[in-house]
Design brief:
Elements lengths: L10 E6 L2 E6 L13 H18 L5 H10 L9 H12 L2 E5 L5 H9 L2 E5 L16 H8 L6 H20 L1 H16 L2 E4 L2 E4 L2 H4 L2 H9 L4 E4 L2 H6 L10 E5 L2 H8 L4 H7 L16 E3 L13
Helix pairs in contact: 4-6, 6-7, 6-11
Bound molecules: phenylalanine and fe (iii) ion (FE).
Fe (iii) ion (FE) binds next to α5 and α8.
Protein name: Phenylalanine-4-hydroxylase
InterPro entries: ArAA_hydroxylase, ArAA_hydroxylase_Fe/CU_BS, ArAA_hydroxylase_sf, Aro-AA_hydroxylase_C_sf, Aromatic-AA_hydroxylase_C, Phe-4-hydroxylase_mono
Family: Belongs to the biopterin-dependent aromatic amino acid hydroxylase family.
Length: about 300
């Protein structure tokens, strides 16, 4: 949860599919770098080293390469200004420090303008394995390295513009777009020469899910299909029941280039698909056994 030492903030509560969640309307802040404690830097170092070791051979090659190119290391929590020098030069992106979740439209507008909001505070030592909301480790370690890749950088900016548009169309369009973000940016897998690899930030920042998504027989692993993903519900409180696999970042760009407006209209009359269902038309890499799946409703 939010660090009690956090700067004063204006908090609103917004009803979402998780119930009421706090939304920090505080705009952009300076990363209070000199305020990080020894413990904060140690949490970063521990998580960084642990994931680095685990992700060798599991994360997308491009992720590992870009992370090294940015100059992120375990030594201490990076200074956003330093990372921004690499990022601006590579793709014109920059990261900005925020207190936490932003109102949806603000978030989309930042992305459309190549600003990636990063939560400045880091989890506590007792939260190494799980916390319910994004912190510095998730945002910075998980999301930022791929913003150094030109294709992925363009994809996230296009998503931001698409978000502004979907927001104007209505809540159903927004739900369709959110599912796309969830199953790509947060929980996506990619097929590379060595086999399936991880590029989704929600997996990359989680020890348990980094193993589960590739090694467990429980979840489905299915080929990327835009309209199918936009209909698929998901889990917010457990590992995913299904992961979608792209062939390349170029495939993701191509598939999402068309205007989604007609697709939203079509999907408005289609049923949603439960998170664990496999359909006849799916390109199945692995059909999940479903072992250990929660039986309550998916989001
Ligand atoms: N092409 C989408 C639209 O018209 C925008 C988008 C691009 C959304 C990339 C997601 C990812 O809405
Ligand atoms: Fe995230």
């Amino acid at each position: 949860l939010q660090d009690p030492a956090a700067a004063p903030q204006r908090v609103e509560h917004r009803m979402t599919d998780k119930g009421y969640v706090p939304v920090y309307t505080t705009a952009v802040v300076e990363q209070p770098w000199s305020g990080y404690s020894r413990t904060d830097h140690e949490v970063w170092a521990t998580l960084f080293a642990r994931q680095q070791r685990l992700l060798e051979g599991r994360a997308s090659e491009e992720f590992l390469r870009m992370q090294a190119a940015m100059g992120m290391t375990a030594r201490e929590i990076p200074k956003f200004d330093d990372l921004n020098r690499s990022l601006r030069g590579a793709t014109g992106w920059e990261i900005i420090a925020v207190e936490g979740l932003l109102p949806e439209l603000d978030f989309f507008e930042h992305l459309a303008n190549r600003r990636f909001p990063v939560t400045w505070w880091i989890r506590k030592p007792e939260q190494l394995d799980y916390l319910a909301e994004p912190d510095l480790f998730h945002d910075l370690f998980g999301h930022v390295p791929l913003l150094m890749n030109p294709l992925f950088a363009d994809y996230i900016a296009a998503y931001g513009r698409g978000g502004v548009k979907a927001h104007a169309i209505g809540p159903e369009a927004l739900a369709n777009l959110t599912r796309l973000y969830w199953y790509t940016v947060e929980f996506g897998l990619i097929r590379e020469a060595g086999g399936l690899r991880i590029y989704g930030a929600g997996i990359l920042s989680s020890k348990g899910e980094s193993i589960h998504c590739l090694d467990s027989a429980a979840p489905n692993r299915i080929g990327f299909d835009l309209a199918r993903i936009m209909r698929t519900r998901y889990r917010i409180d457990s590992y995913q029941k299904t992961y979608f696999v792209i062939d390349s970042y170029a495939q993701l760009m191509e598939a999402t280039r068309p205007d989604f407006t007609p697709l939203y209209a079509q999907l408005a009359v289609a049923d949603s698909i439960p998170a664990g269902t496999v359909l006849d038309g799916d390109a199945v890499f692995h059909r999940g056994t479903g072992e250990g799946w929660p039986t309550d409703a998916d989001v």
